[in-house]
Amino acid sequence: MHRDRWLCYTKAVMKPANSILSGYGTTIFEVMSKLAADAGAINLGQGFPDVDGPEDIRRKAAEASIDGPNQYPRMLGVPELRSAIATHNRVHYGLDIDAEREVMVTSGATEALADCFLGLIEPGDEVVLIEPLFDTYIPIIRMAGGIPKLVRLEPPEWSLPKAALEAAFSPKTKLLVLNSPQNPNGKVFDDAELDLIARLLIKHDAYAVCDEVYEHLVFDGRRHRPLMARPGMRERCIRIGSAGKTFSLTGWKVGFVTAAPGLLGPIAKAHQYLTFSTAPNLQSAAAYGLGKDRSYFDGLAAEMSAKRDRLAAGLAAAGFGVLPAAGTYFLTCDVSPLGFNGDDTDFCRHITTEAKVAAVPMSAFYEGKGPDHYVRFCFCKKDEVLDEAAARLKRHFAGILRPSPIT
Ligand code: PMP
Ligand code: GLN
Question: Would you say domain 18-47+295-400 falls under CATH 3.90.1150.10?
């Protein structure tokens, strides 16, 4: 009661906050993680592993913080990490990168994305985006004065509609955002799609912000192919990686930006005023991690694809329509075979509170009305947790007489 009165008072005297950000609610990841915690549910919503990444990398961070220095590192990142990022680009993708002029370290890929949008977009510029998409893109693009031009991928195929993509470009296009492997649907863009995007970028003299945080989570013998490595793309692409995803340490928030000097310069202007620098001990540890040999990166993909298969089998047995996932942490499921009476958001709330397993609704990744009967499950969890989640869902839905609606 007291708190309510305080809220009313605050509302009455406060001048309006920023209208763009005020138009958005709390991010779905926070909402579902809180709901899962409150309900005591297994959290297969927000994407984070339930086992911390390699101990040797964590020890490096601990040692670096004891040995120091722990003061502001250089604005663009500690030299050892910038050099490790350049080497990683060469070893994994054959990209020849100048660590001094073409690499920047950020506080997570999230900051890197904001730096790109704030640093490159002029008010009125158009930005081509491919839905479903990660929820940080559009608010920051709007904050920078950009105008989103959305191209929709639809389940279950998620194929890139060529005509719609072409139509989204105009003389005002400044950027395209490409997230491959793609969150939330696990799509990995194929060579023909990357070539189409490259042609359009050249035709319209535009750039690509390439969100490649899941670069080492590509499955079934495929390997990640950065757009930047394709002909004509070296000077047009900004490649973004994340230590959080590559080393299963999502709380660290260490991001990697690689771009030609002409692009990196304006992006670094945003970085210098937003965060300026990133924890030096985590940077040293990330540098050590990037130097691991290929078996580490292949092992990560193998481990995660086994988890994908495990959860897919469990969810299929529980009655879900499981879609393929070529990469990322995520499986998309069609819930319509379960006969639930409600949309994907209702469904996620329902399974969190009633079956004690949380997921994220696919519609949250669309700006307008998205598909309403698909949900995303995160599979980077211990095997026993995945098994228990699938068992709970199976029990829950087996206990309900179909086709009677579940309320
Ligand atoms: N891009 C995508 C597609 C993501 O899923 C995430 C999730 N964490 C990020 C960027 C942000 O990465 P970071 O945690 O390094 O900020
Ligand atoms: N990328 C994570 C996901 O998709 C969430 C990151 C976040 O919560 N900001 O679940």
Answer: yes
